[in-house]
Amino acid sequence: MIQPIFLTPVFQERIWGGTRLKDIFNYDIPSSTTGECWAISAHPNGQSTVTNGKYKGSTLCELWNDHRELFGRMEGDRFPLLTKVLDANDNLSVQVHPDDQYAKECENGEIGKTECWYIIDCEDDAEIILGHNARSKEELVSMIKHNKWNELLTRKKIKPGDFFYVPSGSIHALCNGTLVLETQQSSDTTYRVYDYDRRDHNGNLRELHLEKAIEVTTTPHRIRKVDPIIHKINTSTITTFVEEQYFTVSKWHVYSRLEMIQDKPFMSVSLIDGKGKLTVNHDSYLLNKGQHFILPNNMGAFVLEGNMQMIVSHP
Q1: What residues are designated binding site for Zn(2+)?
Q2: Where does the record place the Phosphomannose isomerase type I catalytic domain (predicted)?
Q3: How many domains does the chain have?
């Protein structure tokens, strides 16, 4: 009998982290500077662990390696997606990620990092940095060299429910007062461009990676507009934000009852608000805000009941 796969997250402390992962989701975080919840992850830097069923205690990486049938027998040497929840209590560094080809050649076979953000919550005046104003590599280098950050960086006001697609090569940063669910390629390669002259716990300026960052930055910046597609099923709503090379990401807002078929290689599900119940093959599972799980391949029909909001992604 195929069951959903519930997962325990891994938490990462960051200089810019806070306590909202505990305050909002009641997670047992390691400190008051906890910045990242790696919720659905098989990356070696933080692996989720199965909490139910016959695979209980296994890591997601072990499932990918030993039970590829759960994921539609997808090809590849790694689970392809990584789901995080980020608490930006302070500004993140301004950064950029490489594409697959550059990462393979320059980062020991790592993959690139295209990502996207769903704004769960934010302060009234919150913003993000997404994109830059340099018209050429030469202008990009000059503006960085002369610290013209206000002229170079593009800032956008944000509100809860906003969604942003951030392909590799995009200069970007979350800013303070923001809680985000991030769906990304399963990569941990980041090049810092600017970090507000912050120092680490030892008093040292945090490392920048300007040479690589300049090499991989798309110039001029390409705006990738998001045009959500909204599909109503009875009283529930499925909003598909993006369907692209690496992932499809949707928001499911369940009002009362939603019947679905799992017809993808797998689905990664993060419950960001509400509570309810998942029924699969006559077995029921209680769901609460902050849970993360995978609906495996060939699971077939399932029913969601309650009042819940969830972010769902699949390859």
Answers
A1: 97, 115, 172
A2: 6-114
A3: 2
